[in-house]
Specification:
By secondary structure, this protein is α/β, with parallel strands linked by helices. It has 15 helices and five strands. The relative contact order is 0.11.
């Protein structure tokens, strides 16, 4: 589950200091791209603090810091990817270590862990899988980019007690909704997690998930507390997102390429400096506009202003960190609003985004995974 990680483990101030020190040493190794040193830090922590703490309080904590440093423009995309790769390899080294071996005995149950179709942030889901394995669960870890039909076919074949569905990208909420419904129709309850589902799990509940947790420990604790009830066939709500009847989500997402093209044309007329942009700069600008349209679509799907305004303000912070004037977002929203003037909900979202952008506080990173 692409859950916000970690929630601090217990054990008092001495263990808390040990976890913090381990995370700091792992950060230094990852920053230096020293995979050997990083592995040694993780294995030493596993021996002294336990394998679960090494996974969540070191690797999970460092991965969150990687995102924060990227958002603040203190890590490049290449450095971010290298750090994630080192963390992933540290997980592989840890699960082979003797301290992470689970003694033979009855299984706590059978769980499938998968990412939402289109989700590429796979490390948090892997961390959850390994925590569940350490706690005695039989885990089918399917990883990233799992098409819903293949996930459902796997559930029919294996019959797990639950499926843990990971989502970091809020733009994948419509896909998550379809997956949740398909899993429940197959008779398997869904445990949703990840920043895509909202910091308080609001979208998980809205889209029909049976449970949600704010972090991997909370998810493992909830599963240990008792089985999730099996969905009853034929009891899915027929229309629990009535706002979608206006077709705004469908029409906006279908017209996304045309919207991007129209906004790009308008910006070129409003901002003469864009006429001197290189092909790469134009491509990056078009991608930024496409992300705005994608988040607008996601916000229309769940009918939540905060999803769109949060993304707009986060984008402004990212631009500011990279010494790009965030004021360019205002004409972008104006042009997008002009294109969607006949769509009341989209117009509301765009106006709210412009208002929040105008009155936003001083920039503050880190970047929520849901937006990255």
């Amino acid at each position: 589950m692409s859950l916000p990680l970690p929630s601090p483990g217990g054990g008092g101030p001495v263990l808390a200091d040990a976890r913090q020190d381990g995370a700091q040493r792992l950060w230094a190794a990852v920053l230096a791209q020293d995979e050997t040193a990083a592995r040694d830090v993780v294995l030493a922590a596993a021996e002294s603090l336990g394998a679960e703490s090494a996974l969540l309080d070191l690797i999970g904590a460092v991965q969150r810091r990687v995102g924060a440093e990227w958002a603040a423009d203190r890590l490049s995309v290449a450095q971010e990817h290298a750090a994630t790769t080192i963390n992933d390899r540290c997980v592989s080294a840890l699960v082979r270590h003797p301290c992470a071996q689970v003694p033979p005995g009855p299984s706590a149950g059978h769980v499938t862990v998968a990412c939402v179709d289109g989700e590429w942030h796979g490390l948090p889901a892997r961390l959850l899988s390994e925590v569940l394995r350490l706690r005695g669960w039989q885990v089918d870890h399917l990883g990233t980019l799992v098409p819903s039909p293949r996930l459902v076919a796997h559930l029919h074949r294996t019959g797990p007690a639950a499926v843990a569905l990971s989502g970091s990208l809020a733009t994948r909420l419509p896909a998550a909704h379809a997956t949740i419904a398909a899993c429940r129709a197959a008779g398997v309850p869904v445990f949703a997690g990840g920043s895509a589902f909202g910091a308080d799990g609001r979208y998980a509940r809205m889209l029909g998930a049976d449970a949600w947790a704010s972090d991997a420990r909370g998810a493992a604790d909830r599963l240990a507390a008792g089985p999730l009830p099996r969905p009853r066939p034929g009891h899915e709500p027929a229309d629990h997102l009535p706002h979608l009847r206006d077709q705004e989500y469908t029409l906006v997402t279908r017209s996304a390429p045309q919207l991007v093209k129209a906004v790009m044309t308008g910006l070129t007329e409003l901002l003469p400096a864009m006429r001197a942009y290189s092909a790469w700069q134009l491509q990056q600008t078009a991608q930024d506009i496409a992300h705005i349209v994608e988040f607008l679509g996601a916000a229309l799907y769940v009918d939540d202003d905060d999803l769109f305004t949060g993304f707009i303000c986060w984008t402004a912070d990212i631009l500011t960190a990279r010494h790009v004037p965030a004021d360019v977002l205002l004409p972008t929203l104006d042009l997008l609003g002009a294109e969607l003037g006949d769509f009341p909900r989209a117009t509301r979202l765009i106006r709210r985004g412009a208002r929040e952008l105008t009155h936003r506080p001083a920039p503050n990173s880190p970047a929520p995974e849901a937006h990255r």
